[in-house]
């Protein structure tokens, strides 16, 4: 029996009394992935990206482990909810226009001490001030650096379009704007190199593309390391007591941790290891988050139909955004239908071994987004479900 076949047998036994659709997290794999992230971080603390987990119980589980400290959130409402739940170090990774949330933040000393907001433009400070509604608490601010690699005088850009702050001078200028405005304090710098941390460099069947990605990423790492260090020096001239410099992502943990200027690493997807994180030379994780759909039809030889399945991930549309049939091995989508909203046909000789009611296990393309489809996650240890915990959705929250 292959390792994947053994996992299928375990998951089927563990969920034998549960009707599909059902989602699980294999805690042995989850914990092993956490240990690997800590090893790669080389002693620097890892801030957990909540959008890649979206389950408070699992966020608390990983934060209880040595090597992890703090949350990186994705909306202001989520940040406040987590802080009210007792988490005291929440970094909002994206600018917000949530006026009600800012009013709540500025009026509550506990929330103001626990939550750090993201800016990359002085206009965002004006929005926060206009939303204060009398709240006078000092708002903690993090500045985001654009990590994109710019070539040919800026005519070629490689990297996500996030912050407009690219040079040390630009970041320092905004730091001075914050320092000169009462009610705000710069406490950190964040720089997420998504073109390095979030792009696989060993795509199966595409050796030339993979080599090109590796060359690009090596050049991007060198350029960013120099620029990030210069940015930190420039900002420290304005804010000598800067508390943290955050960088990285699951795919670049060890590279970013090697930079002296970086004080902490961000990671989250590496805990669940969704399908988009299979194609890396820098690490190999264990799939920890899966969902099962039930076989409801057998239309013919070599085909079964499962209920549901149309759970695409965000990003540029393409086949790589779809969940992948994982267990049993050997199933594939019908190219004419793909993953359907209500039903999904799956092809392959192994389909003839599946009966009505059997489970087919899938892996989502991206971490965290799976939890927008399920109210609960069943936590599996060995071949048993040892706990069932709510996702954000199960707690009644859809923050985006």
Topology:
Elements: H1 3-14, E1 22-26, H2 27-41, E2 46-49, H3 56-63, E3 68-73, H4 76-84, E4 90-92, H5 99-107, H6 109-114, E5 115-119, H7 122-131, E6 139-144, E7 149-151, E8 156-158, H8 168-179, E9 184-191, H9 194-197, H10 207-238, E10 244-247, H11 253-257, E11 264-267, H12 269-272, E12 289-300, E13 303-307, E14 324-327, E15 332-333, E16 343-347, E17 359-363, E18 376-381, E19 384-390
Helix pairs in contact: 5-7, 8-10
Task: Write up what this structure looks like.
The chain has 400 residues and is an alpha/beta fold. The protein contains twelve helices and 19 strands. Strands 1, 12, 13, 14, 15, 16, 17, 18 and 19 form a nine-stranded mixed sheet that branches.
* Beta-strand percentage range: 15-25%
What integer is the average pLDDT? 94
Radius of gyration: 22 Å
How many individual helices? Answer: 12
Descriptive keywords:
400 residues, alpha/beta, 19 strands, 32% helix, globular
Quick description:
The protein has 12 helices and 19 strands. It has 400 residues and is α/β, with parallel strands linked by helices. The radius of gyration is 22 Å and the shape is globular.
